[in-house]
Target: Pimeloyl-ACP methyl ester carboxylesterase
Amino acid sequence: MWAPSIRFRRGWWVVALAAFSTVPAWAQVSGFRDGAAKVHLSTGSNVGEWIVRGEASPRQQAIVVFVHGGPGLYTEQRRIDEGAVFRRAGFTTAYYDRAGGGVSERLPAAEYSFEREIADLEAYRVHLNAGRLILWGNSFGASLATAYVARYPEHVAALVLTSPGTFPGTTVERDFSRTERAPVVMSREMKSAAALIDGKGAAAESRLSQSDAGRIFDDFVGSQLADGFLCKGSGISPPALPGGGNLYVQRLVSASVAKVKPANIAPGRFPVLILRGSCDFMPPANAAQYASFLGGDVVTLDAVGHGLLEDRAAVDGAIANFLRRHFARP
Model:
C-alpha cells in the first residue's frame, strides 16, 4: 500500500499525495495534530498549520486556504480528506487553527474579536507568500472569508463557501425542523459560563479560565450541536470531534461579528461557489445574501445537512465542476 511521504521544509509539513491512492490520503498519516507546524504570525498569533500539496504536475499556482467554522473551533481531520477534490485539480491546500482553538496558542481574552481574525487571515496569507488565495470558507469560516474579501479583494482569486454561516453584520433565525436534533438546549454549566463571558467580557478570566471554559464548550458542541449538522433520519453518525474549542473565542467573536458590515465590492469580481444542503439549519435567504454581495451561484444539494456529510460525492462534484469552469490547468 502506498503511503504519503512527509518532509519538513521551511517550517511546513508537506504531504506528497498520489492521485492513484484509494485510501483517503490523510487517513494514512498518524498523529494528525502532532504533525502541525507552528507558525508565528505578524499579528502576534501563534497558530498550528498543515499544508498538503496538490496532485499531478504542473500544479496550480493559487493556494486553497481552508477557513474553518466556529467561532472558537478548529480544523478537523476530515476537512483535510475533503480537500482532496482541490488537490486532484492541482491545488495545494493549506489549513490553520485560528488563534485560541485546536493546536493554536491562546491569546489574552481581550484580544479575541472578528477584526483580529480578519487580521490573522491576512497575516497567514503573507506567511504563505501568496499574492492571491482561493478561500474555502466553511460555516462561520464563510462569514470570515467574506469579510476578508471585502477588506482585501486584491488578494482573492476565488471563493468556495460551504454551508455558509450568518452573513456578516446580520442576524439569522436558525431552523432545526429538518435536522436530526431539535433546537439546541444549553446545560446549566454552559448557560452560566456563556452569561459570565457575555456580561464581563475578557474580565471573566479572573473567575473562569479559558481551559475550563473550553471543556464546557467541547461538551456542549459534542452533545448538542453535532447532530444538528445532519438531516432528520439520515441514518449516519456525525464524526467524532477532537476537542480544543474555546468558549471565549466563541462568545467574544460572535458578539463582534454582527457589528462588522463588509464594504461593498463589485459582484462577480472573481469566481464564487456557494454550496449548501436542503436541510441546513441556516435558511436559504442567508445563502442568497452571500450571492447578492459576491455574485456567483448557490448550489443546493437535496437531503444534505449543514455538515455536508450525507452525499460527499455530490459535494465533490459541485466543487470539481466549479474548478474546471474557472481554472484551466497551467
Q: What stands out?
A: The chain is about 30% helix and 15% strand. The CA atoms of residues 102 and 244 lie 4 Å apart.
